[in-house]
Amino acid sequence: GLIEEVASNVPRLDYSDGTCPSFLLEPSATNILTYSEGFLTDWNNTNITVNQNSTISPDGALNGTKFIPTITSGGHYLDRNGVTVNSNASASIFAKKGEYKRLAIRSYVTGAYAIFDVNLGTIIAEVNVTAKIEQLQNGWYKCSLNETLNASYGYSVFVLEDASTNPLDTYVGNGADGMYFYGAQLETNSYATSYIKTVATTQTRVADTASKTSVTNLIGQSEGVLFVDFIPKDTATQIIHQVRTSGATNVGQIDIRLTGGTINTLGNDGGSAQFDITGTSFNLGQRYKCAIRYKENDVAFYINGVLIGTDVVASFNSSSKDQVSFGDNITSLVARAGIKDARVYTTALSDAELTSLTTI
After folding, report:
1. Quick check: pTM over 0.85?
2. DSSP three-state, residue 302
């Protein structure tokens, strides 16, 4: 429930669902908002008093900022204009109720917006955006939205009256009451990824990749099971879990992937396709347990305890598999998901075992 800074080449663990952590894999992202904390330098102020270091932020330091609407009649907000995104704009900020409990994130370019209630942890309105609210500890929430556009972007954060359903509502503050904010981010992605702190310049996090090579003896060559328990974060085509011949294209390969809105599985051997089974559709943020059994003339694909499909003419005797990765050959079609559990079995499991293994 707190933000932790993680060094390069250290696995990032996500505890946001309140249970066992997930291994977090995200695409590359750049926070194009400079001075993402503090909200004074580079930010434009309209009828807001900005009190820095007013509360403990999600990173555990005394660096949360209070936005206090002034006694001026009008809208009360801070904004950043003229920042540029390409196609998908995802904006996010951490917020905590004070005397006020509602906020809006709004685009000046299109007028699209979302309104959030950080007392109830709910989304009040979504206008031409897809919004999300995530609970952290100590009253903090991460509020985010995604909008598709290709232009300069005006990013505005409004403090709203407690019953407001319109970011442009006019009211008079009392100069003392307000609410708390931390960690603003704007990125070119289809969803808001984890927070990237900036000061005077934009900052980039490279894409997460994870793999293990030279593990031939840990992978069943002619038979086995690939299992993954995961939470999808993005609808892009991606390989969630894979064993394969490293460095070679479609020589020996077994994988579980997301393609075209469904969970699928694919197998190649000796450069030839052995099976390709289309599974069920998936929802972002929902948990799935998937397993594929591969064995000569005996392939079975299970999702959440249900047999999805089989193949009875496959063979896996021609190619040596020596690599495990979350993505295709490490660097392409990289998984964008929370991986709760991933396993490779060197022998084929029974139908009963696969049903039990994949039941949520």
Report:
1. yes
2. strand
The residue written with tokens 């063979």 in the block is 315
Nearest-5° angle of CA 291, CA 297, CA 301?
20
CA angle, 305 then 350 then 324, to 5°? 80
**What is the pLDDT confidence band of residue 266, given thresholds at 50, 70 and 90?**
very high
Q: Are strands 211-213 and 113-117 parallel, antiparallel or unpaired?
A: unpaired
Closest CA to 90 of 238, 191, 207, 235: 191
CA separation for the pair 117, 103 (Å, rounded)? 7
Tokens encoding 173: 């503050």
In the chain the first and final C-alpha atoms are separated, in Å, by 24
What per-residue confidence (pLDDT) applies to 151? 63
In 193-269, DSSP assigns E strands to 203-205, 211-213, 224-232, 238-244, 253-259, 262-269
Q: What is the DSSP-derived secondary structure letter of residue 316?
A: -
- CA Rg value for the chain: 24
Distance, CA of 95 to CA of 93 (rounded, Å):
6
Residue 278 confidence (pLDDT) above 70: yes
The answer to whether 239 and 254 have CB atoms below 8 angstroms apart is no
